[in-house]
Amino acid sequence: MSILIGHPTGNPNAHQAALAHFETGRLAAFCVAWMPKPLTLRLLQRLPGLRPFVERVARRRFAALSEAPLVQGRLREWWRLAGRLRRDDNRFDRERNDWLMRTMCRHGHGAAVTAVHGYEDCALLPFEQAKRQGKACIYDMPIGYYPAWQEQQASLRRDYADWLPASSRSEDSGAALARKRREMELADLVLAPSAFAEDSIRRFFPDKAIALTPYGVDLDFWTPPPERPRRDKLRFVFAGQISLRKGMPGLIEAWRNAALPDAELELIGPWHLSVAARRALPPGIVHRAPVDANRLRERYRAADVVVMPSFFEGLPLALLEGMACGLPALASDVCASPDIVTEACGQVTPAGDGDALVAGLRWFDVHRDALPDMAAAAREQAEYFSWARYRRLVTQTVAPYV
Q: Phi, psi (5° rounding) for residue 31?
């Protein structure tokens, strides 16, 4: 009994799912475009001008899988990454997904593999092959089901038209949507990280077998500072894409309306809104480019509250990382249910409710004395969401399908 799992780049939740299969002796192979070795990263760091690139690809390294059976496409991925240094083109992502599906088909053939574990947009071909051979299809959805987002996105794009880049367009063609739907139809089991993600799937597939498998956080790395000194300014922090889906227009408007004179909001991540919106940021908001994990941890430790106001999500790792660093949370109800962000460690507001978001920002400003106790509660809550717990849930959930 063995599981073939594949992910185009290798992100934390895919690494941990593969590790769950490896720890139980069920991993046939983990297919991934490239998992760089430490020596490779050190050599690349010596080349001038490549530091941002190295920091980005270093996230693909996962030492716990160094002895696991890996199938990689290094040369193809190096070529694709070199192309992306010259221009940003979704074609490279599609090529990588196609490579992954073909590779999984090659290595999933035969009796040794009894289940295939795939992700959205790169599971169709291996799932079709698995069905022909009587093997189980495990579909991992790190976010809500895309057709649900497409419906919501249409109205949001109308409401926030002035915030969108001039080149902005709908993300998926009819063919892509058909592929996503077919992947879901073929799935015997869907892993969902949150109740919101599960509900978004059930709207379209009410009888689908879905298992709730909340993500975790590296509790040894994401830690609070030894001491968080009192500061004159209250610091809120958001990490992720500065985009419509992440609720950034609503957060920026709420910040302007909250009018907090002694507070700062730090936005860390790639800017996916209009240039005009960036130029018109209200006082107190600072935007920073993406940073590596070490510097992101420093930014969390220098902050007081983590903000996550998304319109559409799964379970954002940045929320758990901030909480693990001792940050109370102000999150929308699509990011966090009350069992993730409790009253002791933060507030959960309805997604898109600007008045509630303003009230939440002002509440933290007024109740600064409560922050030390809330910081301790946030860390305690994050400790429940460990990656070890996530791996146990994955192992228990997939066992009947292998």
A: -95, 125
